């Protein structure tokens, strides 16, 4: 239809795209949309900005009844209900909405998987003290409440930090994106999310959503970190062992969970997914020894499994390889390096005659990790909030959160962070190190 084509053309330029519905080409069923009419979107006033406002929305019996009706409509259509994926803003009042939604799912569908993704913008407005304080409070309360009622919770963002001190957003070697455009940052996160969730979404999958959660959330570690290589730097014409041998001790992915990357790669458990690479075995020359142990593997699955066990010795690792790449046709933004082919493979030397065509698909490497980096993330947020004088922000608590409940959430945040400690580090020593 002409109108649909017009939307796609506007999206490619990125000029008039503001919200997700601006570039949505899918027709949504009326039962799948519930509009909150009490608040305006992205306005100077009347916006949903505090955790308590979001919570109170779902304490309205009319709202609960409407949501349950829509939920049951879809659940009754399922032949096999694995569980639910909840994508929720952490930085605003939707943090409170998500907390109550996951609580509702937890109470009504016990035994089903609930995977929750906490989203934040790549750039945060730190110039406004009130907005910055609200952002910290919403984020902390969201992490605590969402993780407690979820099988697994993952903060997912291109922002460099969830804390008070802003950090530059995540950069990728073969993507030039505009961090101020949610259209760009959400496209990268969508590629990562689509890859991370593939192990339980495909018809050929042997594991379920709950199985994935149980492999990662042991010992109270309900929070996981996301990593992704978008695109995975697969060289055109080279085998997977050839490519991975160039990254023997340093996996070519970036942390997508708003924390500085650790100096040492280590994790307790992980689920790794590689998609869009050739599944053919590397060519072997008779009489010539293989260049590495990776070249002795019989399949791409074995190559990836051996690689992750080498880089993360002692960690419980599951790995999946999918032939299907991540599609990047319109309305996906064209922000890729000219060194990529149409299939997203990397050219070492770009030929002068090589046409600069749009990238139609890309290989992606992604992982969910239960990792010590989450101690840095959670404990850092705890310390930032502990230093703040919350009495200055009575308006936040007037929206529905009690001071006592906040202090309890702060304690839970610290307890959660301790699940990811390595060795016997003392909190006091961390305080001293940060003050230097």
From TrEMBL:
Keywords: Cytoplasm. Residues 13-202 form the DML1/Misato tubulin domain. One of its GO terms (biological process) is mitochondrion organization. Gene3D superfamilies: Tubulin/FtsZ, GTPase domain. The keyword Cytoplasm applies. One of its GO terms (cellular component) is mitochondrion. CDD domains: misato. Pfam families: Tubulin_3. It is found in: Cytoplasm. Its main location: cytoplasm. This is Protein misato 1. It comes from Tauraco erythrolophus.
């Amino acid at each position: 239809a002409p109108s649909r084509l017009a939307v796609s053309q506007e999206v490619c330029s990125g000029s008039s795209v503001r919200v997700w519905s601006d570039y949505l080409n899918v027709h949504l069923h009326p039962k799948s949309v519930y509009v909150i009419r009490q608040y305006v979107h992205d306005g100077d006033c009347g916006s949903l900005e505090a955790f308590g406002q979001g919570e109170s929305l779902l304490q309205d019996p009319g709202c609960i009844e409407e949501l349950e009706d829509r939920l049951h409509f879809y659940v009754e259509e399922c032949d096999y209900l694995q569980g639910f994926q909840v994508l929720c803003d952490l930085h605003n009042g939707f943090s409170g909405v998500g907390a109550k939604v996951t609580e509702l799912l937890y109470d009504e569908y016990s035994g089903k998987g609930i995977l929750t993704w906490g989203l934040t913008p790549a750039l945060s407005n730190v110039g406004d003290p009130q907005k910055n304080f609200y952002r910290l409070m919403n984020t902390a309360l969201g992490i605590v409440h969402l993780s407690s009622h979820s099988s697994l919770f993952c903060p997912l963002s291109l922002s460099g930090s969830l804390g008070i001190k802003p950090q530059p957003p995540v950069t990728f070697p073969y993507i030039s994106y505009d961090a101020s455009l949610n259209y760009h940052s959400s496209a990268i996160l969508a590629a990562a999310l689509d890859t991370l969730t593939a192990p339980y979404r495909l018809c050929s999958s042997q594991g379920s959503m709950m199985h994935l959660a149980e492999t990662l959330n042991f010992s109270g570690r309900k929070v996981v970190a996301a990593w992704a290589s978008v695109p995975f730097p697969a060289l055109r014409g080279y085998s997977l062992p050839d490519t991975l041998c160039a990254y023997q001790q340093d996996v070519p992915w970036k942390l997508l969970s708003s924390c500085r990357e650790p100096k040492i790669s280590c994790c307790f458990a992980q689920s790794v997914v590689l998609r869009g690479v050739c599944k053919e075995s590397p060519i072997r020359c008779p009489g010539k020894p293989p260049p590495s142990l990776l070249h002795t593997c019989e399949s791409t699955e074995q190559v990836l499994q051996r690689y992750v066990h080498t880089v993360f010795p002692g960690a419980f690792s599951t790995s999946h390889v999918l032939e299907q790449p991540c599609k990047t046709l319109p309305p996906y933004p064209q922000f890729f390096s000219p060194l990529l082919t149409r299939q997203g493979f990397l050219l070492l030397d770009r030929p002068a005659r090589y046409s600069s065509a749009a990238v139609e698909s890309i290989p992606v490497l992604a992982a969910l990790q239960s990792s010590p980096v989450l101690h840095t993330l959670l404990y850092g947020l705890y310390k930032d909030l502990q230093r703040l004088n919350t009495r200055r922000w009575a308006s936040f608590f007037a929206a529905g959160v009690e001071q006592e409940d906040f202090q309890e959430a702060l304690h839970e945040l610290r307890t959660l962070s301790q699940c990811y400690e390595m060795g016997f580090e003392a909190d006091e020593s961390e305080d001293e190190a940060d003050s230097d």
